[in-house]
Design a protein that fits this description.
Layout lengths: L6 H17 L16 H16 L18 H13 L8 H14 L2 H13 L4 E4 L15 E4 L3 E8 L10 E7 L10 E7 L5 E7 L5 E14 L3 E2 L5 H15 L5 H14 L1 E2 L2 E2 L4 H29 L7 H24 L17 H14 L6 H12 L6
Parallel strand pairs: 1-4
Antiparallel strand pairs: 2-3, 3-7, 4-5, 5-8, 6-7, 9-10
Helix pairs in contact: 1-3, 4-5, 4-6, 6-9, 7-8, 7-9, 8-9, 9-10, 9-11
The structure holds flavin-adenine dinucleotide (FAD).
The site of flavin-adenine dinucleotide has 19 residues, from β1 and α11.
Length: 396
């Protein structure tokens, strides 16, 4: 097995590294891993950076050039992901849509849809959110009840979505709707996109335990949706959804693991435990070494998934493994951080101080990490998939 990159791939890496070093705004680095901007001001700053990336074609790395992408390969995309994280570049305003929905449109969309939707998605000119989950349809997504009724010239959409990340910043929502209620539950679903500024769309915030506004509920009351907004065949949205969810599972085991571990190592140098820095304490040194081992194995599992993709093979168990192992890794990192900080680590009153300047971030990270095990399909469901499809265990 050869894990070395070719000279051309290394040249790509260095060109990108140089560009990012010159262009990533300093003030966006601290909260780079936060999926959703904390304010409109931060949103606009991230959007301005994304516009720059798009102008230099440093986004949509494997997407075809005619839709605004770079037209490079999957390996270059993997190198890009490593360098982007290394540079502490901020999550793009359209980060999940670019990783999940854009590829879905490339796979299922008409030529007109690709021309209309993809370039503004890359530049951040138009922002997107995902409307799959409903109050009674999460793990059992096919139970969704939001209806789209064929009214001749248009669809009329009525229902409710929930846990809609960044819905309050979005211009568009891509969603699953029931178009044939008489059909079995996995049939009769369609995929379409809806203008969030349409009459009848209402966005209500859901505030997290961290105090952050990440999610929303989105209500649809007889919303008119043009027929051309249907993506993929009518009533066959489940197949379209599987494309999105496969891309989503690959990135839903947490983010920025390497830089999160670096944050933890920095913390270990600053926090005093038993009269010396945690970084000199046997217990914490062992814990950090173990995390580093898990980080490396996660990287190589990612390369295995990549190899399948390059060979044109269907997605394998690696995607569910990336989800479960990635989640365990971030959970363990936050456990070690909490042990270092002691009980104070979970108190909102932990204020920045000379020894721990990013104290407040740790509270946010420690509490926020629980969501990672749920987003993009829960780890329990991923374990079921590994058990049933890879190990051949009986169905749960
Ligand atoms: C950070 C975050 C971001 C999200 N963003 C979005 C978004 O932008 N758009 C969107 O549509 N959705 C989003 N979601 C929703 C997410 O996809 C759902 O929360 C997830 O699929 C679980 O569904 P649920 O919340 O209904 O939980 P449920 O399905 O009700 O599950 C509850 C519990 O039961 C367990 N469980 C359920 N079924 C089984 C089973 N068969 N075997 C074993 N255990 C089981 C689950 O693992 C879980 O622990 C987001 C969630 C999070 C946390």
């Amino acid at each position: 097995m050869d894990f070395d990159f070719t000279p051309e791939q290394e040249a790509f890496r260095m060109e990108l590294r140089t560009w990012l070093e010159a262009n990533v705004p300093e003030d966006l680095k601290a909260n780079a891993a936060d999926m959703v901007p904390s304010s409109w001001e931060e949103f606009e700053k991230r959007r301005a950076f994304q516009k720059k990336l798009a102008a230099a074609r440093w986004i949509g790395i494997w997407w075809p050039r005619e839709y605004g992408g770079r037209g490079a390969g999957i390996i270059e995309q993997a190198i890009y992901d490593e360098e982007y994280e290394r540079a502490h570049a901020p999550r793009m305003t359209n980060h999940p849509p670019i990783n999940q929905w854009g590829p879905t449109v490339i796979h299922w969309g008409t030529e007109a849809q690709k021309k209309r939707l993809l370039a503004p998605m890359l530049s951040g000119e138009e922002t997107w959110c995902q409307g799959y989950s409903e109050p009674n349809a999460g793990s059992d997504l096919a139970s969704l009840q939001t209806r789209a009724v064929d009214k001749g010239d248009y669809f009329e959409v009525t229902g409710q979505k929930i846990w809609t990340s960044a819905g309050h910043f979005a211009d568009w929502i891509y969603m699953l709707v029931r178009t044939d209620p008489a059909a079995p539950k996995h049939k009769g679903i369609s995929c379409m996109y809806v203008d969030m500024h349409s009459p009848g769309v209402e966005v209500r915030p859901l505030i997290e335990i961290t105090g952050a506004h990440h999610f929303n509920e989105v209500f649809f009351d007889a919303v008119r949706v043009p027929k051309e907004n249907l993506v993929g065949p009518l009533h066959e949205g489940w197949r379209v959804a599987m494309t999105t969810l496969n891309y989503e599972r690959a990135i839903s085991g947490g983010h920025n693991h390497a830089s999160q571990l670096n944050h933890l190592i920095e913390l270990a140098k600053k926090v005093t435990v038993n009269g010396h820095p945690a970084s000199e304490d046997d217990y914490f040194r062992q814990q950090i070494a173990q995390l580093k081992i898990e980080l490396e194995s996660l990287k190589y599992t990612g390369y295995r998934a990549l190899t399948r993709q390059i060979k044109g093979q269907p997605a394998g168990p690696e995607l569910s493994m990336l989800k479960t192992v990635g989640c365990n890794l971030v959970l363990n990192m936050m456990r070690v951080a909490t042990e270092m900080l002691g009980g104070f680590g979970t108190l909102a009153g932990l204020t920045p101080n000379p020894s721990i300047p990013d104290a407040r971030e740790w509270l946010h990270r420690v509490l926020g990490v629980r969501g990672v095990t749920i987003a993009g399909g829960t780890t329990e469901i991923s374990r079921n998939i590994i058990g049933e499809r890879t190990l051949g265990l009986p169905k749960s």
